[in-house]
Specification:
The chain is built from 10 helices and 19 strands. The chain is α/β, with parallel strands linked by helices.
């Protein structure tokens, strides 16, 4: 099996055609064909959304949207033709495709490896790269397997997308990684990210890229407008707190808001609070917050966790410690459910809806 694909110049049609003729791997062939199609004037791209926030669907993006998005990232990270980008995330989704588009437009070299937990596994020891896109699953592997020094060689920047990181992961990255590292906010409909959060700063605010306008609708949800949306207003289901016209804090999904005892609660906010409680208790397991219907509260909070079932005393200890830490009684999980292993979407995110049904 071919371990990795190296394209010295993504804008060189002759090199791409030669590589295509000599490449046997279907995944690498797909990427090379896309590069050639782009250079030959690809006008639109039909792409399937990841399905992490709803039913997967196919949408159509125009070339001018993709170009606008790519140029913003190129300018932000000061990427140039002498740089090399690493593609270890799935090309099937918008994040992977946009990394390729950036490489083509900037004339960068591109190294492609098969998507997996270890983004550096197939690279030779001297395989230096200047820019890389990662998903949280890969970040977690890097942290747990002592690869942070390898990450420190990616001098132009590390872009993390697809889902949020745990606070402990962010802390480790801040302390151990010196190169620019950003968490992205975006979606397929906006041709990947429209805002970035600098992980070397402890605040939770995303800074909007140039040429992007933002605002809120009457639900408190973010709307986006700019060249990446063809100047149309794109309404989202993401509840945000807007600091000013150039930055915002993401609070959670409107359709995930839990109404418990008349209080509107965001699962992501509760997850951060409960993670602090687990840290105090020295407990470590993957979990997420959801809800089920309740005749008295309307909805009651459910904690779904991965691994062996917790004992009654452990559950009681979590609740008591949470109360002492200032977690409101309505914010406490009323039900604890476990799975041996969480199901994942195609893009590597936890499939929360499926997990809840499996419990």
């Amino acid at each position: 099996m071919e371990g990795y694909l190296k394209i010295n110049d993504c804008s060189d049609r002759n090199e791409l055609q030669e590589l295509l003729a000599n490449t046997k791997d279907a995944y690498f062939k797909e990427i090379l064909r896309f590069c050639i199609d782009w250079l030959e004037g690809l006008e639109e791209l039909k792409i399937k959304t990841s399905g992490s926030t709803g039913t997967p669907k196919v949408i159509c993006l125009k070339r001018e949207q993709l170009e606008a998005s790519a140029k913003k990232t190129i300018a932000f990270f000061s990427l140039e033709s002498q740089h090399t980008a690493l593609l270890p995330i799935n090309f099937k989704f918008i994040g992977g495709k946009m990394l390729v588009v950036r490489a083509i437009i900037a004339g960068m070299s591109l190294v492609v490896v098969k998507p997996g937990k270890n983004p550096f596994e197939e690279l030779p020891d001297n395989g230096e790269v200047d820019f890389v896109s990662l998903v949280p699953l890969q970040v977690n592997y890097i942290i747990e397997n002592g690869l942070l020094e390898r990450l420190n060689t990616v001098n132009k920047g590390v872009l993390i997308g697809g889902a949020s990181l745990e606070e402990e992961q962010e802390r480790i990255l801040r302390e151990k990684v010196s190169v620019p590292i950003y968490l992205s906010y975006g979606m397929t409909e906006t041709s990947s990210h429209i805002a970035l959060r600098n992980l070397h700063k402890e605040h939770q605010k995303f800074d909007v890229l140039e040429g992007i306008k933002i605002g809120q609708d009457d639900r408190g949800c973010l709307w986006i407008e700019g060249d990446v949306t063809l100047s149309n207003r794109l309404e989202t289901n993401d509840v945000v707190e807007i600091s000013n016209s150039r930055s915002f804090q993401w609070l959670g999904r409107y359709d995930d808001v839990i109404n418990s005892g008349g209080l509107k609660l965001f699962p992501e906010v509760l997850e951060r609070k409960l993670k602090e409680v687990l840290d105090v208790l020295g407990l470590e397991f993957n979990f997420f917050i959801s809800s089920i219907q309740d005749n008295y509260l309307g909805e009651k909070i459910v904690l779904v966790y991965e691994g062996e079932k917790l004992g009654k005393s452990q559950v009681m200890n979590i609740k008591q410690t949470a109360s002492k830490q200032g977690v409101h009684k309505y914010e406490l999980p009323k039900v604890f459910l476990n799975l041996k292993e969480f199901p994942l979407t195609e893009s590597g995110k936890v499939d929360k809806r499926k997990a809840l049904l499996m419990c």
